[in-house]
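Dear colleagues,

I hope this message finds you well. In preparation for our joint manuscript, I am sending the 4'-phosphopantetheinyl transferase (Kribbella pratensis) sequence together with its predicted structure, so that both groups work from identical material. I would be grateful if you could confirm receipt.
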Amino acid sequence: MTDDIGQKALRSAGVEVWWARVGAAQDAFVRDLDPVERERLAAYLRDEDRARFLLGVTITRRVLGARFSLLPARIRLDRTCSECGKPHGKVRADGVELSVTHSGEFVGVAFSDQPVGLDVEKVDPGVDVDGVARIALSAEEARELERYDGIAKAQAFTTYWTRKEAVLKATGQGLRGELRAPAPAGIQVQELEVGADHRAALAVVSAEPPVVRVQDATLLLS
Ligand SMILES: CC(C)(COP(=O)(O)OP(=O)(O)OC[C@H]1O[C@@H](n2cnc3c(N)ncnc32)[C@H](O)[C@@H]1OP(=O)(O)O)[C@@H](O)C(=O)NCCC(=O)NCCS
Ligand SMILES: [Zn+2]
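The corresponding structure tokens are as follows:
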């Protein structure tokens, strides 16, 4: 019995997912940002985009600060893009795998011991599902969507889309990866519940379904 549990722990990745609402952003959070992050922050034109980026950085720094017993500002984050070298790539930190996502009301950060991808999208009722489906969905997924109409169709499409993005974010490929392909073996993908207006998905490299702990970031940010 004990052995079974021990074995399972070896095969299942552990993932912590932290969620915040965009309204939780405060100017004071800027204090903990590094120069690269301050430059990124200053370049956003819309307040909501600034707030989402700031929250992603702040959750990342505070969770890792607590984990590694360091001040949040002392956490070293590398955002180098693997394509062009600019600091807009997948966030990396020593000793942990990370994924940041933001859309609509939500900002989320996933932390794991294995490569992880988190994606949230606000459902866009006006999305041209049939148009995007041709480039983004497998034939089977496209057929499945034909069963839906209106907002239900947009929601179902967004579910597929976030699952795919989560996988591509786990591998670090982003949207350069093949969207129509099914998730490769060895990656566990699951939907996360975030209410009717958004869809979210988590992908993690793991032989078994991961042990996922979902956390509300309200206290962390207060
Ligand atoms: C990564 C990507 C899938 C994000 O999609 P999105 O739904 O628009 O945005 P999300 O909010 O879910 O994710 C953004 C976060 O993903 C992370 N990210 C950026 N590039 C990433 C990549 N290749 N893989 C995984 N995560 C990535 C960043 O942490 C970013 O948040 P931050 O800048 O606030 O820290 C998309 O932007 C993409 O495919 N980018 C890569 C495309 C590429 O290669 N560009 C090269 C430019 S030179
Ligand atoms: Zn780039």
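For the figure legend, we might mention the following. The domain at 2-216 is CATH 3.90.470.20 (Ribosomal Protein L22; Chain A). The chain has six helices and seven strands.

With kind regards,
E.M.
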